[in-house]
Structures are given as C-alpha cells and as structure tokens.
C-alpha cells in the first residue's frame, strides 16, 4: 500500500488530507542557540508526505476544549508522536525513578495531546498514536502504564539506549484494523521502556510481541466502526520503505475529509 493518491479523487491536489502531528517541547541546541523549542524529527512528516498527506506541526501550548476544537477544525487526521514519558499522575501513580520527571513543559504537552485526542474522537477524526502516542491514547481512555519494562520482563531489550532501535517481532490480532493494514506479523522498530498495562475503556489489543508486551491498541471496530484510532508502541516512521500505517491514517483522513466536504 503506497498511500493516498489524489488522482483517484479526480486529480485534485486540494483533496489531499491535512494531518496534524504533535511535537516535542524541550531544550534544543542548534548552532549557537540553546533554547526551549518545539520540534519534531523530519522523518515523521516525510512519512506523511510519502503516504500522500500534507503535514502540519502542532506545538504544545496552553489549551482548553475550545482551543483544541479550533486546532482540529483545520485537520483531517491526527498523529500523536513519540517523546518523553507521560506524567504518571495522569493515571494515578507515583513516579518510578526511571520515569521522566514531569516538568512543566511535559505537563503542557500531556494536556495539549489529551485535549486534541478527546476532540478528535468526538469528531470521528482518524488518529494514529506512535510510541508515547500509544500511551497517551491508553491513558486518555482511562488505562495505565507499566512505568519501567525491565522491572516487569527482567531485560532492557525494548530500549537499548544511545538512540539504538531494537527490532521486535509483533503478531497482530485477527479482525483488527491493524491486522488489515500490516498482516499477521511484522518486525517493529522499538525504543520504549514503558508499555500499556491496564487497557483503557473501549480499546482492544491489536498486537503483542514475543514477551507478551502489548505493542498496539485500537478503538474496537466492532463497537466503533466509524472511528479510526490505531496506536502502536513501535516507530513506523523509522521504516520509510513500509508506509502501511501512515497510508492507513492518510486514507482514513481522506475519507473523513470527503465526509466533511459532502456534509
């Protein structure tokens, strides 16, 4: 699956869906500057472009439901990207020593993404969660996280450190949206020391790895057939030769756009 083709919609580039991607908020260095910044690795929006979508970046900012709705008015789909750990206070736990300190910028990003996700689900807007994004989706739906997988599994293979991705074999659950997109199994690029523990309401497991770790969840298509929400714990943007997940969200966003235009 190569992604959305505007030519199939009458050749109009104006029909390409706009995908909002959430961003980091933390200190960043560039040249002589060392400043607080909003940013996102280019590989994310390169994947969206290759899949046929148009990217727009969403910097964390103070937000309420009205602001979130205004942001979502300009989008056809939402990607909640990777990054620092979600504040464990949002799912009723004390911070594990290995969990990122929930400084103010982290809390700002958490609140921004929770508001965007809630608004997107209300609208039926397609959502793809990636790594931290999968954890945001689960926590937003009332679930919890394992804060440090080595404590659970006895090994650190899901996050080796030093920006080195590990490869995990994941197996999908038949009948899920994820299985329809990527088939029975896939080799996934992983870099996470946390994972989903208790599932959020309305979510189902759509993939696990050989350790039994939940590697993907989605809104149950049996009960929410009109809401496309898929969230994976791995990093599909690290494999630009395999655009199936990005093609999935872009195609779902194109359908969402058509529904808005024709309404």
From TrEMBL:
Pfam families named among the record's database cross-references: Peptidase_C26
Matches recorded under CDD domains: GATase1_2
Cellular component terms (Gene Ontology): cytosol
Signal peptide: none
Sorted UniProt keywords: Glutamine amidotransferase, Transferase
Cross-referenced InterPro entries: Class_I_gatase-like (IPR029062), Peptidase_C26 (IPR011697), PuuD-like (IPR044668)
GO molecular function annotation: gamma-glutamyl-gamma-aminobutyrate hydrolase activity; transferase activity
GO biological process: polyamine catabolic process
PROSITE patterns: GATASE_TYPE_1
Membrane in keyword set: no
Protein name: Putative glutamine amidotransferase
